[in-house]
Write a structure and sequence with these properties.
- Helices cover 19% and strands 32% of the residues.
- The protein has helices at residues 15-19, 54-63; strands spanning 2-6, 23-26, 31-34, 38-41, 44-48, 69-72.
- The strands form 2 sheets. A 4-stranded antiparallel beta sheet has the order 4-5-1-6, covered by helices on one side. Strands 2-3 form a two-stranded antiparallel ribbon.
- Strand 2 (23-26) and strand 3 (31-34) form a beta hairpin.
- Keywords: Electron transport, Iron, Iron-sulfur, Metal-binding, Transport.
- Pfam families: Fer4_15.
Length: 80
């Protein structure tokens, strides 16, 4: 499973950080950061989700008020 995060879209509500510790607060910029990720496009970050964190990553995506977080299964199909 993979998570994709559009940091530019993020509005800094930090709801994702409450759901999964893969997201961290950057209060200086008023945005979340996806820890351990790599930038795949300008301001778009991706990382693999450990099996034990899959449910938390899905919850983080679901609570994002601006849909800045997407979750993909191993076949590349978007599931959240």
């Amino acid at each position: 499973m993979k998570v994709r995060f559009d940091r530019e879209t993020c509005i800094g509500m930090f709801q994702c950080t409450a759901e999964w510790d893969g997201f961290e607060k950057d209060e200086d910029e008023g945005k979340a950061d996806l820890a351990g990720s790599e930038e795949v496009e300008p301001d778009v970050f991706e990382r693999e989700v450990p099996a034990e964190a899959e449910l938390d990553a899905k919850f983080a995506a679901r609570v994002c008020p601006v849909d800045a977080i997407e979750v993909y299964d191993d076949d590349g199909e978007q599931i959240v």
